[in-house]
Amino acid sequence: KQEVTQIPAALSVPEGENLVLNCSFTDSAIYNLQWFRQDPGKGLTSLLLIQSSQREQTSGRLNASLDKSSGRSTLYIAASQPGDSATYLCAVFDYGGATNKLIFGTGTLLAVQP
Amino acid sequence: DGGITQSPKYLFRKEGQNVTLSCEQNLNHDAMYWYRQDPGQGLRLIYYSQIVNDFQKGDIAEGYSVSREKKESFPLTVTSAQKNPTAFYLCASSPGTGGIGYTFGSGTRLTVV
Known about the structure:
The complex is a heterodimer.
Chain A: E1 4-7, E2 10-14, E3 19-25, E4 30-38, E5 44-51, E6 56-59, E7 62-67, E8 72-77, E9 86-96, E10 99-104, E11 108-113
Chain B: E1 4-7, E2 10-13, E3 19-25, E4 31-37, E5 43-51, E6 54-57, E7 64-66, E8 76-78, E9 87-94, E10 103-104, E11 108-112
């Protein structure tokens, strides 16, 4: 059974710092991996999607990497801003038999202090 | 603008009462999903539907029911059999399978009183 873990559960950094969020998964047979952002009391917004054949994706100050063999992904945020404060979730798309679905990690709550 | 609308934003349920959460999308997506989010547990899949008039149980379907009579609508009923329904409920849709193009609603917070 696929399990997705995110460390740390919470992170507080001063504005301007570069930071890395971690995601690990137990079964490397994934189709893709996504990073989502969730603001308090809101839904999720997709930030980056990495297909299983890719190693990384970039969007602005965000860079996500994928190492399938080790079951790891990282989300790098450059020059963090208070507006980056949110919960970040990673999710893998799992071809688990008939149940094709996204499996989510527990999230990292990020606070960027001005 | 296309999107997903969940209503109500806040819902209070008395013990033994059934309540229905609404989810409507105008994205012409085939697939729709219901997730439950509890603090520290991420999102867990309750039910999903890949096509009209068809739906499958997710990981935590007990105490919940759904219908998919229209492509645009995927309501979730939380029945009295669900012993711990207090949670944040998220509806999502996607064009198909493959984990691509997921769009989420803004959620319904259900509280048992």
